[in-house]
Amino acid sequence: MMSESAANPFVDGRQVPGSNGSLTLDTDTNNQHAAANVSPYSRADSPSAHDTSSPYAATGKRLVDLCFKTYDIGDVHSKLDSLKQWSISTYKCTKQAVYEHLGKTQRTLDPELEQRIEQTKDLQKRYLQLLQLSRSFTSFFNQMTTMQSSLAEAMNDLAQKEPRLRDEFTCNSEAQKTIAQSAQTLMNALNFFLSTMETLCEKTIEDTLKTVRSYDQARLQYDAYRMDLAVLQQQGGAGGSASEFQGRLYEAEHNCQTYKSKYEQLRDDIQVKLRFLDENRVKVMKKQLLLFHNATCAYFSGNNTALEASLKQFHIASNDGPSFLEQ
């Protein structure tokens, strides 16, 4: 017959050793361990509760400082006023552009200046096309020059391996080497031509067209405020007091005059830039086209002396002399 301890392994909440020899802590001991495992952050005397150097306290302090940071009220009002003026101007210009597109209003035109601007835009497209073709030609010619040099080296190597064909291989190797050296001289002229064309197309003409875009924007702004003034003058003082109407009329006239002055200033600037662009373009292209003509004709006619003279005429550094391996 089993004893009381064996029949009931739990006595007063404690497990006593049984037949299997197992032993379980009593409930009081479990409660003590549970109390010992309480998170330290839940205690009032936790270091993070009073230590301002902890990351949690520092983050909270920054948030408080950010929330209660004071701003300059005058600066805020200034920025809001600038945003308001920009929004009004953008709305008026967009409305003017839509009306011009629909043909409901007339734009300010300077026929002679508009024609010159269109000619400049067309010239830029054509010069960019010429620049692209010149780049392709220079790249192809550079590849051909590299292949000629490789061909000369291969023939020179075969001249050492083929005694019975040594003279023929040597003759062709020297010919290809001479042609490659002349081609390198022509490459210097082509690179100079390309550099000047890039400056003309991507900097000089582009700078003028950038001013043209500013001029177009100023013209649109002037027309928008000019039409706004015209509409206000047609309405008269209807729907408001005379003092209010006079205030709006004065503001509209002031804005119209301001944008008119800006438009006229940019119009004068673009006329000067277009004149200088025409003069410089003709002067530069005359020099570059003469260089291109003389260099290419001298190269393809086999006149290396004339080719070197062309580069010296335009102060272009020619290629260095042959290396000690080529001598």
UniProtKB/TrEMBL annotation:
Region (Disordered): which ranges? 1-28
Q: Which PROSITE patterns would you find in this protein's record?
A: AH (PS50870)
One GO molecular-function entry: phospholipid binding
**Species per Swiss-Prot/TrEMBL record:** Plectus sambesii
Output this protein's name.
AH domain-containing protein
User: What PANTHER family does its record include?
Assistant: ARFAPTIN, ARFAPTIN-RELATED
Q: Which SMART domains match?
A: Arfaptin
Ranges of Polar residues compositional bias?
A: 17-28
Q: Which UniProt keywords apply?
A: Coiled coil
AH domain mapped to chain residues:
108-312
Q: Which residues form a coiled coil?
A: 215-269
Q: Which GO terms describe its cellular component?
A: trans-Golgi network membrane
Checking InterPro entries in the record gives: AH/BAR_dom_sf (IPR027267), AH_dom (IPR010504), Arfaptin_fam (IPR030798)
- List this protein's GO terms for biological process: intracellular protein transport; regulation of Arp2/3 complex-mediated actin nucleation
